[in-house]
Specification:
The protein is α/β, with parallel strands linked by helices. The protein folds into four domains: 67 residues; 138 residues, no CATH class; 146 residues, no CATH class; 131 residues, Gcn5-related N-acetyltransferase (GNAT) (Aminopeptidase, 3-Layer(aba) Sandwich).
């Protein structure tokens, strides 16, 4: 065993020496190099990129990181996303399609998950401990070359905001502690330390149901440092809600969206085409309604087609012939049409669940569903204007990395639209030639129903999101040639939002729902702490 380990070390040293001597290489050249030394030293396994990265001297790391970094898209939207899942707890919903402990009795996981999703597997591995889940994920990302200086936490599993308050606080504290790498004495201390820690939490997202996204739940999310809410909307049809025993109606969704949006939270809808009682035409109409009706209009979408999973009531319906899911071809066509109609201010986060194909009894099993939709769109001359498809680093039309123009040379586009009784302004900074998005800001003039005292006390506008995309640039680092962050674009977008707030929205106060670790950035721009927000007079 010792001899074998020695050969691994010798091979690793040889690879590192060869890389340093040769300078930048392609992924193909790296692969050939690893195979060469695996054969030379008689290794049974190829040396991993993570092992190589760990041995690269600091002064050579930046030069070799681009080829050694794995899964580069993990941090191409300007942040590292870290998810933590809660332990199984009762859920107020009894949805007939929902997997969980009842449908997968050998997998004790949170409701709506099978236990085989990556986040669920981590939660089981670490006994649902939020500290261990987050800390291990940070370590995993950093070991394959990703900077985790800017982290977005996502709290997953069941209906978190329906659980006991002390559990909620303890779980969020554990997540923040995992980022900090130390156990703090309280949630308050954790948040205080997270403002200036080496790893910054730029946002916290909570998954919930519409009926657990009302004023008191919104206030709780804000207290925990929340900046975005993912709402399990699924459909807009009351008849379908009733059929699947969802437990709420469309009016609850509209109230939830208004309460969360007026408080400054970003809104992500989970939508489920192919539900029992629906059809392709009804689903097309549903997606159209989502963006035509100002009571909805989410900022983000996660599209999770309905699937038949073992142990659910829906499995019985399927076996009895009462439910038949769409074919892959039907679903691809539907999603292609949906994408072609999207407004420019929405971002599609996902188009398929992380459920392994062997657990799906019926329904689309293609893990590359998004690529199939793109192929259909290309073949039929359809284009998608969603943020992800135009985002620098993700843009499909411009796969070669475009040189970044100076901030003052970017094309600034502004779009106003009504939503939830208030007004929204979406400002994006784009490449003047390719229209790729380098950054954007979401500004809101809240409705008269806004319940937060920081907002309704004077004519106010709130920045709900400020994002500069592309590869994560660590907080203390200067941007390199092909990195969009740290070039002054964020500051310019804030200035543009302030101008709109003052002149178009007649506001005298500008608030920002800033992630815990982003607050010092805004302090430097003249903002001050204001409850869960930062604000300034304008």
């Amino acid at each position: 065993m010792g001899v074998h380990k020695g050969k691994e070390e010798e091979a690793l040293e040889a690879i590192v020496d060869a890389l340093i001597a040769s300078g930048p290489v392609t992924r193909e050249q790296l692969g050939r190099l690893k195979i060469k030394y695996a054969k030379q030293f008689g290794l049974k396994e190829i040396t991993t990129n993570a092992a190589i990265l760990a041995r690269i001297p600091e002064d050579e790391r930046d030069l070799l990181l681009p080829v050694l970094k794995r899964r580069s898209k993990r941090t191409m939207s300007g942040v590292s996303i870290i998810a933590a899942m809660t332990r199984p707890m009762p859920c107020p919903g009894k949805c007939l399609y929902c997997p969980g402990r009842e449908s997968q009795p050998d997998q004790p996981v949170a409701k709506s998950y099978t236990g085989r999703e990556p986040a669920a597997l981590r939660s089981l591995m670490y006994g649902y401990d939020p500290f261990k889940q987050v800390a291990s994920r940070v370590h995993d990302l950093e070991s394959i070359g990703h900077a985790c200086d800017k982290i977005e936490l996502i709290v997953m599993g069941g209906t978190f905001l329906s659980t006991p308050k002390d559990f909620q606080e303890s779980f969020v504290k554990g997540c923040i502690d995992g980022v900090l790498g130390k156990v703090t004495s309280s949630l308050l201390e954790a948040k205080r330390l997270a403002e200036t820690s080496d790893r910054r939490i730029i946002g916290i997202t909570f998954e919930t149901r519409p009926d657990f996204c009302m004023g008191e739940h919104v206030d709780a999310m804000l207290d925990y440092g929340g900046t975005r809410v993912e709402i399990g909307v699924q459909t807009t049809r009351d008849a379908i809600y009733q059929l699947v025993e969802r437990g709420h109606d469309a009016s609850a969704t509209k109230m939830a969206v208004q309460s969360a949006r007026d408080a400054g939270l970003k809104i992500c809808f989970h939508l489920m085409p192919n539900m029992p009682g629906s059809s392709v035409d009804q689903d097309k109409a549903m997606f159209d309604e989502i963006f035509a009706d100002g009571a909805y209009r989410p900022d983000y979408l996660k599209i999770y087609p309905c699937l038949v999973v073992s142990g659910t009531t829906l499995e019985k319906w399927w076996r009895d012939g009462k439910y038949t899911p769409y074919s892959t071809a039907e679903l691809v066509q539907l999603l292609a049409i949906v994408k072609s109609r999207l407004p420019a201010w929405v971002r599609i986060q996902r188009v398929q669940r992380d459920i392994p194909a062997d657990l799906i009894l019926e329904g689309v099993k293609n893990s590359n569903l998004r690529e199939l939709v793109w192929q259909y769109m290309d073949k039929n001359g359809l284009k998608c204007n969603c943020i992800r498809c135009k985002e620098y680093g993700f843009s499909r039309e411009h796969r070669s990395i475009t040189p970044i123009p100076d901030v003052d040379d970017l094309d600034i586009q502004t779009e106003f639209y009504q939503a939830s009784g208030g007004m929204e302004c979406f400002i994006s900074a784009r490449h003047p030639g390719t229209a790729e998005i380098f950054g954007y800001v979401r500004l809101r003039k809240p409705s008269a129903a806004a319940h937060r005292p920081e907002i309704n006390g004077s004519p106010s506008s709130i920045i709900r999101e400020l994002r500069v995309v592309g590869e994560v640039v660590p907080v203390s680092k200067v941007a390199k040639q092909l990195q969009a962050q740290h070039r002054g674009l964020g500051k310019k977008l804030v200035q543009l939002a302030e101008h709109v707030a003052r002149t178009d929205f007649s506001s005298t106060k500008l608030l920002v729902i800033a992630g815990i670790g982003v607050r010092p950035y805004f302090y430097n721009l003249g903002f001050e702490q204001d409850g869960p927000y930062v604000s300034k007079r304008i």
